[in-house]
Design a protein that fits this description.
Length: 116
């Protein structure tokens, strides 16, 4: 079955960097567009980044554009989110999503906490 497992979360100081990974199984990774979302405490789910199958198109949420980079390795299946210049307002649970085509699947998420 389809599985998405995020890793790489943790605590980081403001201005620091962190790389999240999303390991996938149960589908042909290179055939699907993938996304990252996040949800902060007490807030709704927020779109973070999108990448299509061949990595020719990426899109970012306004609050992270210029600081975060989404990437994928279609040989080994992981999806990545490189987060730089982190701010306290980036604190959230980050989850990956198999976005398109067909049924969307979401991982359980990994917590990122940005504080001094």
């Amino acid at each position: 079955q389809v599985q998405l497992v995020e890793s790489g979360g943790g605590w980081v100081q403001p201005g620091g960097s962190r790389t999240l990974s999303c390991d996938t199984s149960g589908f042909t990774f290179s055939s699907y567009a993938m996304s990252w979302y996040r949800q902060a405490p007490g807030k709704g789910r927020e779109f973070v980044a999108y990448i299509n199958g061949p990595s020719t198109t990426t899109t970012y949420g306004r609050s992270v554009e210029g600081r975060f980079t989404i990437a994928r390795d279609n040989r080994d299946d992981p999806l990545y989110l490189q987060m730089d210049s982190l701010k306290p307002e980036d604190t959230a649970v980050y989850s990956c999503q198999r976005t398109f085509p067909g049924v969307m699947y979401d991982g359980q998420g990994t917590q990122v906490t940005v504080s001094s």
